[in-house]
């Protein structure tokens, strides 16, 4: 009898602790495709913009890309980095583009930073993702 009570108690505690740390269920809200234009990026002046994920939602960035808008192509030898709150999203370095996806962002306001090691140039950063409602 004590063994059954002990097993039941351990099962209940385990179930309770697992549920207390869960994030809730995710319910599709919408697809997001956004673009940000960063002008006159050079080594001494990175550019910033803001990304907002509304309360009660999470955003999964599934892909990201870069396009230059001023005739400089990615054959030039420079480094271009896009970060969201100091976490790399896209890096271009010596003719290789690396995208770090998927990236999950919880509700909040995020800083997008574009930094470049060479030439005064403009870049369009685009991402696609899925926004979910968090259902308790």
Overall SS class: mainly beta
Low-confidence stretches: none
Q: Percent of residues in helical segments?
A: 10-25%
- The CATH architecture assignment turns out to be Sandwich
- Total helical elements: 1
Chain oligomer state: single chain
Q: Which percent band covers the strand fraction? A: over 45%
How is the main sheet built?
Answer: 5 strands, antiparallel
How many structural domains are formed by the residues? 1
Write the layout of secondary structure elements.
Layout: H1 2-20, E1 25-41, E2 47-53, E3 57-68, E4 79-84, E5 87-93, E6 96-99, E7 103-105, E8 108-116, E9 121-135
Antiparallel strand pairs: 1-9, 2-8, 3-7, 3-9, 4-5, 4-8, 5-6
Task: Describe the protein in words.
The chain has 136 residues and is mainly β. It has a single domain (24-135), classed as Sandwich (Jelly Rolls), CATH 2.60.120. The chain has one helix at 2-20, and strands at 25-41, 47-53, 57-68, 79-84, 87-93, 96-99, 103-105, 108-116, 121-135. The protein is elongated and about 75 Å long. The protein starts with a helix and ends with a strand.
Question: What's the quick description here?
Answer:
This protein is mainly beta and about 140 residues long. The chain has one helix at about 1-20; strands spanning about 25-40, 45-55, 55-70, 80-85, 85-95, 95-100, 105, 110-115, 120-135.
Please tag this protein with its features:
136 residues, Jelly Rolls, five-stranded antiparallel β-sheet, four-stranded antiparallel β-sheet, mainly beta
